[in-house]
Design a protein that fits this description.
- The structure is a single chain.
- By secondary structure, the protein is α/β, with parallel strands linked by helices.
- Helix content is 17%, strand content 30%.
- The strands form 9 sheets. Strands 36, 38, 40, 41, 43, 44, 46, 47, 49, 50, 52, 53 and 55 form a 13-stranded parallel sheet that branches. It has an 8-stranded parallel beta barrel with strand order 17-18-19-20-21-22-23-26, surrounded by 5 helices.
């Protein structure tokens, strides 16, 4: 069957036709396989249905809604009343007759038939059935290829026999027009809407790479992105406008074919081939998201804060991607235990790396108030929760700095100041319950909410001031006011208070969000957001009701059962019941478990409704947290799956095994970023290694330098040994491995296994060594580099008009042409490779002057430098069309296989001096050097006499 083009387009846009990473690029003339049960107009029905309230939990429609953790449940065989499970059936009537190739069923054992017939009907009213497959003892995931070419109207599972007395639970019934696509894995998490592997050579990020933007307006964003690549690569990666080359990353704003109009704010396309890496998006946020995906496709070591060897390659791929929800958040709780500005920035970076775009900061609670409110000095950040707890305080300038840092990464900070309960610290600091509590109030953790008590007006006056100050420093449109767990407070008083806070927030120009049951106090028709978590009432009567979800009001879902990250996992401390990795992934915003009422919220209360859900948040409450490492351990890896639910199409977030495969390559990225993630056994973490680039000084010595790093989260570091080959012919030596092992009881994940060492090299140069890790007969050989070549701070390519002055840092010229003199100032450095200087080069007091494969059409004069190379054993020879004079260098001088068009003078240098294999069109004169120069057994040829210390060279 050829599905209508418009229908296929709609399915692709909805993510219903996934492309599996690993398969060849699709032939555009071939229509991709479609799950016909998902097409609008398909209807599921069954002979029976379990009717236990809420009956919608068990409806046939649940088996064709993509979500694998609900489904159709039949009547129970044990109830009698004439029900015969061997005669039960489930069927789907298609939207339009179509050929069917494959039928996939997903069952919950033991609630499945031991035998069934798969039947099809071709008549319009589905009265006549033909058996196309007889199935015995189906697997829980049962696939039947029927390849029925004649158009089918209905497909039925006709039960014949069962060994169970609990009826049937059919989680998914998929009807495919072609072969069912394999699960989508790959390296990108959250999994993209669509990705297709290309062919041909890989693309490589190199020292010549640039970030090329289509408009200067994108420069600031591109600089942030370059900042994520520069530390690991050591590349300059300049941000420029103009035409991109094959080595470049091109960022362009523009239309993206296939991108829905309502996803233009964040959607993007990414194309990588040997011709370059190109990201296109309608807006800058989309470019940022595309870069996040590109970074995940690079080796995991790209996340390292130290420079690695590379290569930095990406296999050809095309990606079309956009988010499911606009709000994808993490909540941190510095109110209970403080997180510093630097620690919070680190969490912002990791949130951005998973395409999260909201950071909810819980800034006040009973333990402390963390944000400066001018005029209220007693709100000073003292107090915290538990033994060894951490106090602290954000000034308003601190907060504005965090807002700026997050905004540069397209993350909004949503601030929360909690009330009317959870407010002990604020109430105490403002005079206690005698001032802020109602008459006769004994509870210390709440403001007065009785509208007839003067204390409520004093409290609201404070809140007007606090919210006004917060609104002035918080550009985000939302202010969160808490609102949960006001246990024992008269409910009408509570609702009145929420209404007053809604007015205060509205008057500050912001939109209110509150934890349920704050919604009960919202004004009808207001824009305030329902932050739904669970109906906890402290043992009191339920408050949750359909009215919470039938107002058409925006909802953020944060189900306590699945998304609370302070709940323990894999043996770690934490609240209970535990939230293991699979549980944190086994949900969907459109089908949420209401923990305290023990029901699914949607069938029981009619919501949250799909049309109202604007996003997801995962909170990490801080009572048990102590600093960054404990927060990281509890957040990662589980946040990745929760944000995948927020970003990726629903159809692509149902396969737990595929998700674990994506996680397996995410783990090394966290390891190289020094994130303390939980290296749990439920994931087979991929090993990845990186050798480092180490730069020695004039003493040619590395002191306890990190040489190799290996991420192998599934393997204890004590099972490895390491051997260092320094790359200079010296004997190999054992290397000590430094690493953290996995201790869930201490919230400690396995770290990188780092091998460090100390060594002095015989001469200046570039050395290629290795660290060999060994475990049970397996080896990982990790190359590292030791060199005297400095790290570049500026990269120049192309043509430049002189004169040119290097005033500071290290200017690297790669294939550049300079039409005039080049001068290097004291303390600066010059490294030229494959370049042409059409004029003299002069350096006085420079750190390094290194000319490799470079032509200079004038004299070269260098005095007082730290290190000088005119060629060396690894360089293409350098040519100077004039005299060369090198004097007063403190470090090594190497003049190797150069062609020099005039006299060569080498005087008063105090480091090792090597003058070897050169062609000098003039005399060679050496004096005052200590030690005396050598020629490394490679004589120089001259057109004049060799004198002084160079007589025998």
């Amino acid at each position: 069957m050829r599905i209508p083009v418009l229908m296929v387009g709609a399915l692709v846009a909805a993510g219903l036709v996934p492309v599996t990473v690993g398969q060849a690029a699709a032939d555009p003339s071939v229509v991709e396989s479609v799950n016909l049960a998902l097409l609008p107009g398909a209807v599921a029905s069954a002979k029976s249905q379990r009717m236990t309230a809420p009956a919608a939990t068990y409806a046939p429609a649940n088996a064709i809604d993509v979500f694998v953790h609900n489904g159709w449940t039949s009547n129970y065989a044990s109830v009698g009343g004439g029900y015969d499970p061997t005669q039960d059936w489930f069927q789907v009537k298609l939207a339009a007759p179509a050929p069917v190739y494959e039928v996939f069923s997903r069952w919950t054992s033991p609630a499945k038939p031991s035998q069934y017939d798969l039947q099809v009907s071709t008549d319009a009213d589905c009265q006549t059935w033909s058996t196309v497959s007889h199935v015995v003892n189906p697997a829980d995931k049962d696939s039947q290829v029927i390849d029925h070419q004649d158009p089918v109207s209905c497909v039925r599972m006709q039960a014949l026999a069962t060994t169970s007395t609990v009826g049937y639970t059919l989680n998914e019934f998929e009807i495919w027009s072609g072969p069912k696509p394999a699960p989508v894995v790959g390296q990108i998490i959250p999994v993209p809407v669509k990705q297709e592997v290309g062919t041909g050579p890989a693309w490589e990020l190199t020292g010549k790479s640039r970030i090329v933007v289509s408009s200067a307006d994108l420069t600031a964003t591109a600089e942030v992105l370059a900042g994520y690549l520069r530390p690991a690569t050591g590349f300059v990666l300049p941000v420029v406008t103009g035409s991109a080359t094959a080595a470049d990353i091109a960022l362009s704003t523009g239309a993206v074919p296939g991108l829905p109009a309502d996803k233009a704010a964040e959607g993007y396309s990414l194309t990588v081939s040997s011709a370059g890496a190109k990201i296109v998006a309608p807006q800058a946020h989309g470019l940022f998201n595309g870069f996040v995906s590109l970074r995940q496709l690079l080796p995991a070591a790209i996340n390292s804060a130290t420079t690695g060897v590379g290569p930095w390659t990406v296999q050809p791929i095309s990606v079309l991607d956009y988010p499911r929800y606009e709000h994808r958040g993490l909540q941190l709780d510095p109110a209970r235990n403080f997180l510093t500005v630097a620690e919070t920035r680190s969490m912002i970076d990791q949130l951005a790396a998973l395409k999260g775009n909201r950071l909810h900061l819980h800034l006040s609670d009973s333990q402390s108030w963390r944000l400066e409110i001018k005029g209220h000095p007693a709100l000073d950040g003292t107090g915290c929760n538990g033994t060894g707890c951490i106090a602290g305080f954000y000034t308003q300038e601190d907060f504005k700095g965090l807002v700026k840092y997050a905004a540069d990464r397209f993350i909004e900070i949503v601030p929360e100041l909690e009330g009317p309960a959870h407010a002990n610290a604020a109430v105490r600091s403002l005079g206690g319950v005698a001032v802020m509590g109602c008459q006769g109030q004994t509870q210390l953790d709440r403001f007065c909410t009785n509208p007839n008590d003067p204390a409520s007006q004093r409290a609201l006056a404070f809140w007007r001031d606090a919210i006004a100050q917060l609104a002035a420093i918080s550009p985000a449109p939302i202010i969160h006011i808490g609102g949960d767990e006001a246990i024992g407070m008269p409910h009408e008083d509570y609702k009145w208070w929420i209404g007053q806070m809604e007015t205060i927030v509205d008057n500050a120009g912001k939109r209110l969000m509150g934890w349920n049951p704050a919604i009960e106090g919202y004004a009808p028709g207001s824009t305030s957001i329902n932050h739904y978590w669970s109906d906890y009432t402290g043992g009191g009567p339920p408050l949750i009701k359909p009215e919470w979800f039938n107002q058409g009001r925006d909802v953020i879902t944060t189900p306590e059962w699945n998304a609370y990250l302070d709940f323990g996992y894999d043996g770690s401390p934490g609240r209970t019941p535990r939230t293991e990795l699979d549980k944190a992934y086994a949900w969907d915003p459109e089908w949420v478990w209401e923990k305290y009422r023990n029901v699914w919220a949607q069938p029981a209360y009619g919501g949250p409704k799909a049309a109202d859900i604007i996003g997801i948040e995962a909170p990490i409450w801080g009572e048990q947290m102590r600093g960054l490492a404990s927060n990281e351990y509890m957040v990662f890896p589980r946040l990745a799956g929760i944000l995948e639910k927020a970003w990726s199409p629903k159809v692509l977030t149902q396969d737990y095994d595929a998700y674990r495969q994506r996680l397996s390559v995410a783990g090394p990225r966290w390891a190289f970023a020094n994130v303390n993630y939980g290296t749990i056994a439920q994931v087979s973490w991929s090993p990845e290694a990186m050798g480092t680039v180490n730069r020695f000084g004039v003493d040619r010595t590395l002191a306890n330098a990190p040489l190799g790093r290996l991420a192998a989260g599934s393997i204890p570091p004590g099972e490895f040994t390491a051997l260092i080959d320094w790359g200079d012919g010296s004997p190999t030596e054992p290397g000590a491995i430094a690493a953290r092992d996995y201790l869930a009881s201490q919230r400690q994940g396995r770290s990188l296994m780092t091998v460090s060492g100390s060594h002095t090299y015989p001469t200046d140069g570039v050395y290629h060594g290795t660290v060999t890790y060994t475990r049970l007969g397996q080896t990982w050989v990790v190359p590292f580099v030791a060199t005297g070549v400095p790290a570049c701070t500026t990269m120049l390519t192309g043509t430049h008009n002189g004169p040119l002055k290097v005033a500071s840092g290290v200017a690297c010229f790669d294939g550049a042409t300079v039409s005039g003199p080049v001068t290097v100032s004291a303390g600066a450095g010059l490294y030229a490779s494959g370049s042409e200087f059409r004029g003299p080069v002069t350096a006085s007091g420079a750190t390094n002057v290194l000319l490799c494969g470079t032509t200079v059409s004038g004299p070269v004069t260098i005095s007082g430098a730290t290190r000088v190379w005119l060629g060396n054993g690894e360089c293409v020879p350098t040519t100077v069309s004039g005299p060369v004079k090198v004097t007063g260098t403190a470090g090594q001088v190497t003049i190797d296989h150069a062609t020099i068009g005039g006299p060569l003078v080498v005087q008063n240098n105090t480091g090792p001096t090597i003058i070897s294999g050169n062609h000098i069109n003039g005399p060679l004169s050496c004096s005052g050097n200590s030690p005396s120069p050598t020629n490394a057994d490679q004589p120089n040829t001259t057109a004049g006499p060799k004198s002084g210390q160079c007589t025998g060279l």
